Amino acid sequence: MTEASAGGGSTPVSPGRTQPADKVQVEARSPAVRRADDVRSESRLAGASWPEVEARAAAAPTTLLVPLGATEQHGPHLPIGTDTAIAVALAEAAADRVPGTFVAPALPYGSSGEHQDFAGTLSIGATATELVLIELGRSATETFDRLVFVNAHGGNFAPLAAAVDRLRFEARDARAWSPRFGGDAHAGRTETSLMLALADGEPTAVRGNDAPLGELIEQLRTEGVRSVSPNGVLGDSTGASAAEGRALLAAAAEDLCATVRDREARHLLSPCGRQKVPGMAR
After folding, report:
1. pTM summary value
2. CATH, domain range 15-262
3. Nearest CA-CA partner of 186 in 157, 215, 204, 209
4. In the chain, what are the domain boundaries?
5. What is the arithmetic mean of pLDDT over 16-24?
6. What is the pLDDT of residues 118-173, one digit of tens each?
7. Backbone angles phi, psi at 207, to 5 degrees
């Protein structure tokens, strides 16, 4: 679940029809966001060797972007990995534009208990999510100057905020960022448009419970999504389009780039780097 959603159409955006990651990231971004293949490969942490990372970290300030998603239902028309795909696309778009930025492998599990009644949902809960992010942040800041969690799942907000608070208490330069798409709550027009921009498929008109989220939130928390929407959709995908998705991705990527650049500028102005807190692990 992201902060927004939108839709329309005929054939589902199927997980089986999703394009390879390298192809998706190029086609999903506007020309202004695209970079050469060598720039993209340099920014992907999973493909770098430790000496390469060490050399870049020693040469200039570095920022690590960690995509946070979820493995949860997104209605009958969108992939279970929707949130993770969106987080990865945005992190990679920002890394391709901001020097000194790495993208970590995505964390595809989070707090998704409200979707547990739907097959395929894998949730680790809020407590485990918070602990994983704290430990991940402690480890990351041993190498990288700054850490930005790129979160595309609404259920991660609370544990992510708590984890970042803890990391900052330990004087680690960590921050949480989420796209502000607006729109309906889950698997509606916005998320359908986003996935049409990222995957090979045609829009599908699927309507769920489109009541304001504020009217549903208490029942969602106590009884889960299925109690208010049997098909898992909170919104209406009618009207979704790849063009709308590309525009949403471009705007969100620009906002993320501004966030990373702002943190970079403030870090360079700082008279000292991170100071370890006595008694803290790592």
Report:
1. 0.81
2. 3.40.50.10310
3. 209
4. 15-262
5. 41
6. 999 999 999 999 999 999 999 999 999 999 999 999 999 999 999 999 999 999 99
7. -110, 135
